[in-house]
Amino acid sequence: MTNSDVCILVPTLNEGATIGEVIKDFKAEGFSNILVIDGHSTDRTREIAKAEGARVVLQTGKGKGQALIQAFEIIESPYIVLVDGDGTEIAKDAHTLLSPLFEGRADHVVGNRLVRFDKGAFTRLNLIGNRLINRLFDLAYGVKQKDILSGYRAFTRESIQALELNKTGFEIETEISVECIFKNQRVLEFPITYRPRSKKGATKLNPLKDGFRIGATIYRLAKVHNPIFYFGIIGSFFILAGVITGAFVVWQWVQGITRIPMTVLTSLLLLFGLQMFIFGMLSDLIVSLHKQTIRMFQAQFKKK
Ligand SMILES: Nc1nc2c(ncn2[C@@H]2O[C@H](COP(=O)(O)OP(=O)(O)O)[C@@H](O)[C@H]2O)c(=O)[nH]1
Ligand SMILES: [Mg+2]
In terms of domains, do 187 and 240 share one? Predict the structure, then answer.
């Protein structure tokens, strides 16, 4: 296993200010196979990338997720390093991410940006958003990962092809992290350097809109992994509402006023909320049984 077995995959959308440096740096580290998957940049990104010796492919659809899914289908190298084209991550760190793969100790290695990032690399909103999303992920999947949104990763081709990926936008990293759990992959994290973006290139990520989408993705995908969490949240809302209207009913009753419609509403809210928890428990049972079946299948498959 050498660096010639590695494909450096760089998704780009108007990264003309930095893409040249990024490619040069990876070449200097001994990687010659560089694939740029471009989202129809309107600046000189594609020309610069070609001039620096990268293979350039235009994505057929829209969004970082679609670009990556398309790229995973055309890459033939057994190892893949995914990196931003904005120069915020450094080529030297690729060795750290690749060595556990070369040694066969991991299937998927994530560069953790949140440990030793440079000043100004994250805006305050970005940092809060990242921490919140990692917390939610931990809560929903019970897996302590520190930086699930990192775009600097290394993985084997085999492992990425085992994942079922559908997200077209910035939810792709979330989906990859969740699918790695579903597919029982060995995931490791290592701290990496993270630098501020060049002043000349703007981020494509909208912290509020994309942050919300990412949160929603974590929640929605939890339905088949942690149904108690999924249904429990809905149930809690209804129970909370029921407790509030119930408290009102009791308070009024103490004062001698009987509120019949409000009492009916309270019962309905509480019943519906409790029912959600029961749904959650039933789904949890189904999920556990399903996982057992899959494990048995896998064990049989390995024997053969
Ligand atoms: N091909 C492609 N690349 C994209 C798209 N959107 C963003 N990128 C690239 O994906 C990488 C990550 O995006 P970036 O704006 O740096 O997000 P941030 O690192 O979270 O601020 C960058 O290299 C972008 O140029 C897209 O729609 N298509
Ligand atoms: Mg970036």
Answer: no
